[in-house]
Amino acid sequence: MTRLLPRGGTFLLAVIAGTAIANNYAIQPALTSVAADLDVPLSLIDLVPTAALTGCMTGFALLLPLTDHLAPNRLVTAQLTALAAGLALAAAAPDAAVLLAAYLVIGAAAGVAAQASSVAGRHAPPGRSGRGVAIVAAGMSAGILLSRLAGGALTDLLGWRRMLLVFAALALLGALSAATLLPRQRPHSGRSYRATLAALLPLLRHHPQLRRAVATGGLWYFAFNLTWVALVLTLAQPPHSLAPAAIGLYSLAGLLGFAVLPLTGRLTDRYGSQAVITAAMLAAAAGTALLATGLDSPPVAAVGLALFDAGCFAAQAANQSRVIALDPHRSGSLSSVYLVFYFAIGAVGTGLAAPLLNTLGWQGTALTALGALLIAAALGRTGIRQTR
Which compartments is it annotated to reside in (predicted)? Predict the structure, then answer.
């Protein structure tokens, strides 16, 4: 019999997920400060978010399936400890090469956020699995949304190196809590870890809807990362020349994305994931259009970011519901495949932000993201079958 989470366990997992995944984004408002401190071109430091996403993608591929093989207290504690070590290495980095290597580790360990979601669903009381997963998803969303604000404010207050040490301390605190409170029961699995990994890619061949979910999700995550990294770089340069803390404030506009998550679940259950994804993509596209034309007006930019983030978060919640529903008994493996490709395509968006910004300018980069969102809306509209 699967042991249930203790009282407050789901909330702990939500906090762990949020503070862990935040490390993929918290350094973005400080990129110009990091480049100046290490005396390297900004285009090189722009690879730091890419390294984080690449590491996270690797973690999803190799570490997320471990939720079917290791006890939650051991697995989550080990990854949070590795996360703290990676952050400490990044804080002491003498050059860009060490910083990039550290962020590969940070990204892989930050993938514990996805494991937290799986643990919450598996160890929830009967009939409340969906609620547990939603709470952890809300924690992840809050971590993503507030990470740039926290990273920018801490960078202004303490410097970027000490900012990373603050996040390292949070990871260690989470590791201690996980070791103490999470279930010690090892999952029963009918296959070895190697067999689990070998069975991942064939899932794409057997599930056409998984392929469609990967394509649509990847497109909006490409647009999400492209827009946010390009926005940070644009606001940090003339004529805006904003400080990291001021740039981080722009993430507050995305709180609407966090607020719509509970509503998204109800709408998906009632109308199906296909309708929710299409509507969400159209909202995100409208927000991107506002950003492309109204960045010089803070109110217009705030509305644009609110629509953009709300659309992306709502679509992601509906899409993951569709993936899990394909085969609930193999939801971990299905989620692993989905998230690997999702983050891989997102990493491309992150890596292209600086080159596209230099070539096309802010408006051209935003319009590129807009095109990706419209394609995702079209794919969502032509989904094979609704998930209810």
Answer: Cell membrane
